[in-house]
Amino acid sequence: MSRIGVFVCHCGENIARMVDVTRVAEETAKLPGVAVSVDYRYMCSDPGQNMIKEAIREHKLDGVVVAACSPQMHEPTFRAAVVEGGLNPYLCEMANIREHCSWVHTDKELATQKAIDLVRIMVEKVGKNQELFPIKVPVTKRALVIGGGIAGIQAALDIASGGHEVVLVEREPSIGGNMARLSETFPTLDCSQCILTPRMVEVDRDPRITLYTYAEVEEVGGFVGNFKVKIRQKAKSVIADLCNGCGDCWNKCPQKKIPSEFDAGLGYRTAIYVPFPQAVPNTPVIDRERCTKFLKDKCGICEKVCTLNAIDYTMEDEIIEVEVGAIVVATGYDLFSVGKDQPNEQWTGYGEYNYDAYPDVIDGIQFERLLSASGPTQGEIRRPSDGKEPKSVVFIACVGSRDPEKGLEYCSKICCMYIAKHAMLYKHKVHDGQPYVFYMDIRAGGKNYEEFVRRAIEEDGVLYIRGRVSKIYKDGEQLVVVGADTLSDSQVQVRADLVVLATAIVPHRDAYELAQKIGFGCGSQGFFSEAHPKLRPVETNTAGIYLAGACQAPKDIPDAVAQAGAAASKVQLLFSSDELEREPIIASVNEATCVHCRNCIRVCPYSAITDKEIKDKKGNLIKMVAEVNEGLCLGCGACVAACPSKSIQLAGFNDEQVFAEITALGSG
Amino acid sequence: MRFTIESQQLESDLVKRVEEMIEQSPSICYQCGKCSAGCPVHYLMDIPPNVVIRLLQLGQIDRVLESRTIWVCSSCSTCSTRCPKEFKIAECMDALRELALATGKDTPSEKDIKLFHQVFMSNMRMFGKVHEASIAGVYKLKSRHFFADVGAGIKMFLKGKIKLFPHRIKGVKEIRAMFEAAGYGRKEKEEPSTEDKEQEKLI
C-alpha cells in the first residue's frame, strides 16, 4: 500500500472562494493509500513547502499530490520541495483545482465535488508513478547565428566574447543588414554607418567567428546542444583567399546599369560588385543572372583585369556542414511592398498612392539612401524624376501598418521615429523646404523619443497633420496629396515635390520557410514566436533556438541590440556546462513488440523517431524497429496514440498511470 | 472644412504677428485638448479653443479671425493655467481679437460683443473704473437692444448694485497714460472714438 500525502492549497481566496478546501482535505484523507491530507492558505509559500517536506519525513510518504494551480505555474516549485524532502521529483503530481475548477465554476458544491475528483485521480496516478531521472546530453559549444544585421552581429560578437566559436551566416554579399543602409539614427542623429562599421570589422577580425556571406542555411537537424547544420555557400565566382578587394574588376565591369539593391533601386551597381564601400568582407561576387559572361559567354573583362587571378567562373555552390549547440535567428525585416507585387497573397498594395506610377513617390528606405552621404546622391536631397531639390516633402505614416484591410493590423513601431528623423534631416539640408507629416498617432515611446519628435515640430517646423492620406495625384510637376486633418475636422490638400511612404515592417520573405526548416513557431504575420511574450522573450519553443532583432517583431536598433545581447547570454548559459539535463518525460519503444509500421515516425512533430536495425551477432538483420532520439523527443505523446501495437510508452504517462486516472474518475 | 495648405500660409504675416504678440509659437501645442475641456464658455463657441490653435498651426488664420470663438472667450485664463505645454491660450485669443479689429476681419455676427468691449474700454478710460449704469446706457443706445436684461438691471438697482452717478478715481490720468502706452490712446486713433463723445454727452 502506498503512502501518499495530499496538500490542498487555498491560493488565498482564488481557490477557497469556490471550493470548500477543508472538505477536500477531509474527503481525500479517506482515500485508500492516502497517509495524510491537509489544507493551507498558500502551499507555494515557504511554510507551505516546509509542510510538504516535513510530512514526507514524518509520514514516510512515497508520493505527493498538491492540489493547487496549474502545473505550468508551480510544478517546479513543488517538485523541488519534494526533492528536499527526500523523494524523487517525479513522485510529485499536481491536481489543478484553480484554472480547471475554482476559476471556471460558479456552484461551490459542484466545484468542491469536482476538486475532490481531481485529487482522487492524481492520487491514483501517483500510486503508479516511478522514479525518473533527467537525461544528460552533451553540448557542442559552438553557436550558429543566422543573419548578419545589427542583431546578428551583436549576438555573434557577444557569444565570441564569451570564448565560444560562432558561425555567422549572411545571405547578402556583405554583413551589415538594413542598418548599413540608414543615414543617421534617432534620437541622437549618430551616423548609422559610423557606429555600425566598427562592429562589422570586429566580426571580420575575431578569430572565433567564422563568417559565411552570400550563404544560406539549407538544413537543420539534431537537437539542443547537438544541432547539425548544412549551409549552402553560393558561388561567389571570386576566390576570397586571393582577392584583395582592389576594385579593378567592378570598376571595369561594363554592366553598369543594374539597379542597386542596397540603394533600393535609386542607384546602380555592376554585375561583379560589393554592395557598398565598407562591405565586410570586401570580396565582390558575380551576379550570374546579370553577368554577360554567364548569360552570353562573352566579356570576361573582370578575369582579365584581375592581377591576382581571383576570378573563377567555374566555381560552384558548396555545402558546408557544421555542428553547433545553439542557434540564434536574426533574419531581420523587409519593407511592406506598396506596389502591386505582394509577397503574401493576403496583402494588397496602395494603388491610390501611385507608388508604381510616380517616381517621386518613394518609400522610407529610399529616402534613407537619399539622405545618406554614401547614397546615390551623396546625401543631397534630389527627387528621382528630375533631380531637382524638393521644396515641399510629404511623409505618410502607417502605410501598410495598422491597416487590417491591407492585411496588416500591427504597428510597425519604428516609423513614427524615423519619419520625425527624416523630416528633421530634410529641413537641415533644405532650409527653405517645408516637411509635412500625415500621421494617425505619434508613437514615441522610448528614451528621449518624445523629446525628439517635439523637437522636429517645435524647432524644425515640421507640420504634422493628423489623418490618413486618401490619394496622391499628379498636377504638373507636383504631386497633390489629399488627406484629412482630424484635429481641425478638415479635408486638406498639400502640394508636394516628393512623397515618402513609411511602409510597414514585415518579416523576411522566407521567414516562414526558415522557421519550418529549423522547426520553431511563427505567428500569423510571419514574425517568429517567442516562448513567452514577457518571461521568455528571446527563446523559441524549441530548446536551443533563440531570437534576436526584428525577425521577432518590428524593432528599432536599441531594442534589437538589447535582444541580441540577451540571446547571446542565453547561449552562453547553455554553454556553461558540458552536459545538458533534459526532462525524462520522453517516449521509448518496446523493441520486442514493435512491428515497424512507421506510424510513429510519420506523426512525430520533432523528427525524433528513426528506423533502427536489429541484428544478430553475425550481423544478419533480424528486424526493423522504431527508435526514439532522447535528445529530440519532447514528450508530446503523439507516437503513443498512433502506435497500433502499444509498443511506445511515454515515461510519466504510461498506460498503467493513465488507466488508473480514468478508473479513479469512474469510481467516484 | 476643406482647404489647401501652402507653405506661404504657414509663414503668413498674421500668424507671425500673433507669435510676436504672445512671444510663443502655436507649434508647441500638441493638441491634447485640455483648454477645450476646461473652457466655461465652450458651448457658445463655433470653434473649440484647441482647434483655434490647430488652425493657426495650419496657417488658416483667416478662419480664426472670422470666428465667433475669439469674441466669446471671456479671458478667464482657465486654459492658460491648465495647459501642460504652458501655451498662453487666453493671451493668444486677445491677440487674435486685436488682429481681427486691426484687419477688419471681425465677424459681423458678433458685433454686439465687439461693441460691448469698446464701450467697456472707453468707460474704463473715462473713469478709471467701471460705471455699470453708463455702460448699460451707451451699450443699449448703440446696440438698440433697449429692453434686453431690463429685469435684471432693475433688480440690481434695487439691491444697490448699480450706482446712478459715476465716480472718477484719483489716478484717471495714469490710467489714460496706460491706455496710450498700450497703443489705445485717443491721440493715436485716426478718428477719435465716437463712443467716447457720446458717452461724455450722455453723462
Strand order of the largest sheet of chain A: 10-7-6-18-29
Q: Could you give me the name of the CATH homologous superfamily of the largest domain in chain B?
A: Alpha-helical ferredoxin
The CATH topology of the largest domain in chain B is given as: Fumarate Reductase Iron-sulfur Protein, Chain B, domain 2
Question: What is the global morphology of chain B?
Answer: globular
The description of the largest β-sheet of chain B is:
none
Largest interface: A-B, 21 and 20 residues
Report the CATH C-level class of the largest domain in chain A: Alpha Beta
State the helical fraction of chain A. 25-40%
Class from secondary-structure proportions of chain B: mainly alpha
Low-confidence stretches of chain A: none
Largest sheet of chain A: 5 strands, parallel
Number of distinct helices of chain B: 13
Distance between the termini of chain B: 48 Å
Give me the secondary-structure topology.
The complex is a heterodimer of chains A (668) and B (203).
Chain A lengths: L3 E6 L11 H9 L4 E7 L5 H14 L3 E6 L2 H15 L6 E5 L1 H5 L5 H21 L6 E4 L3 E5 L3 H12 L3 E5 L14 E2 L4 E2 H14 L3 E4 L2 E9 L2 E8 L14 H5 L5 E2 L8 E2 L2 E2 L11 E2 L5 H5 L4 H5 L12 E7 L1 E4 L3 E3 L25 E3 H8 L20 E8 L15 H15 L4 E6 L9 H10 L4 E4 L2 E7 L2 E8 L4 E7 L1 E6 L1 E3 L3 H8 L26 E3 L9 H18 L4 E4 L4 E3 L9 H5 L5 E7 L5 E8 L9 H5 L5 E3 L4 H12 L2
Parallel strand pairs in A: 1-2, 1-3, 3-4, 6-7, 6-18, 7-10, 18-29, 20-27, 21-22, 21-27, 22-23
Antiparallel strand pairs in A: 5-30, 8-9, 11-12, 12-17, 13-14, 15-16, 19-28, 24-25, 25-26, 31-34, 32-33
Helix pairs in contact in A: 1-5, 2-3, 5-18, 6-7, 6-15, 11-12, 12-13
Chain B lengths: L1 E4 L1 H4 L2 H10 L11 H5 L10 H9 L3 H5 L3 H4 L5 H5 L6 H15 L7 H17 L4 H12 L6 H9 L13 H10 L12 H9 L1
